[in-house]
Specification:
The protein contains 8 helices and 9 strands. It is α/β, with parallel strands linked by helices. Strands 3-2-1-4-5-7-8 form a 7-stranded mixed β-sheet, sandwiched between helices. Strands 6-9 form a two-stranded parallel ribbon. Strand 4, helix 5 and strand 5 form a beta-alpha-beta unit.
Length: about 240
């Protein structure tokens, strides 16, 4: 079953570009792409580029979509009226989030069936921001989680989640890059389950874990040091 979905992404955000690359490769073609072009988006994109500094950068959205008939619209805020009107006019069954600000109820309600996100951390333990950094600092496993969106922050039903094997020699930057790849793969897996009619919703126990804000620089440095000196507890078995 072909899925009728809109893909929402901050303008040229590498996380969303990587997700779109995987989705297109797997045959999941969005009906429309809505890019947020804003100062908030600029900050978020630059923040992520810093997090993956020195790692490969995914192709730009116009490169990924060349030769494909996918309309691309720019909006100043994914939560504003113009974005809502575009989504309502398209009557999309699903919204797929490729790295956005927190999406508000008025936009979530435009999806006929559901909105899906892939969080770069293992839910329900790590909700919110800076999951890679917090996992290092808190000495928790790395991974990603594809889930349905509800009005909370990263509290919707889980579709699929997977740990990322952490290798000796990994850096904070390489982990962020590899988790972006994993997130794209899990989103494609989630859409396949939905398409096949085999999706199972796993409700989260919201009493578990915390919702984190951006990790302070001093705590991030402690986490990075654990990775560098080998005291992080979740290296993959057999990793040298």
């Amino acid at each position: 079953m072909a899925l009728k979905f809109a893909f929402l992404v901050i303008e040229e955000h590498p996380y969303g570009r990587e997700m779109l690359r995987v989705l297109l490769e797997k045959g999941f073609i969005p009906e429309v792409i809505l890019q947020e072009v804003s100062s908030v988006g600029d900050i978020e994109r630059d923040k992520f580029l810093t997090r993956i500094q020195g790692q490969p950068i995914p192709p730009r959205i116009n490169e990924l979509t060349v030769g494909r008939n996918i309309p691309i619209y720019s909006v100043s805020n994914h939560n504003n009226t113009s974005c809502e009107e575009l989504l309502r006019a398209g009557a999309y069954d699903y919204l797929v989030l490729g790295g956005t600000r927190i999406i508000k109820t008025n936009i979530l309600q435009t999806a006929n069936l559901a909105t899906i996100n892939c969080h770069p951390g293992l839910l329900p333990t790590l909700r919110g921001s800076s999951s890679v950094g917090w996992a290092l600092y808190k000495d928790l496993p790395q991974g990603a989680t594809a889930h349905f969106i509800d009005p909370g922050i990263d509290t919707g039903d889980i579709i699929v989640k997977r740990e990322l094997p952490v290798l000796r020699g990994d850096t904070y930057e390489s982990l962020n890059y590899r988790i972006a790849i994993l997130a794209g793969e899990l989103m494609a897996e989630a859409l396949q389950k939905i398409s096949d009619g085999t999706v199972i919703r796993y409700p989260q126990d919201t009493s578990i874990g915390e919702t984190y804000r951006v990790i302070p620089d001093d705590l991030l440095e402690i986490g990075k040091q654990k990775l560098a000196d080998g005291t992080y507890s979740h290296f993959s078995k057999g990793s040298q």
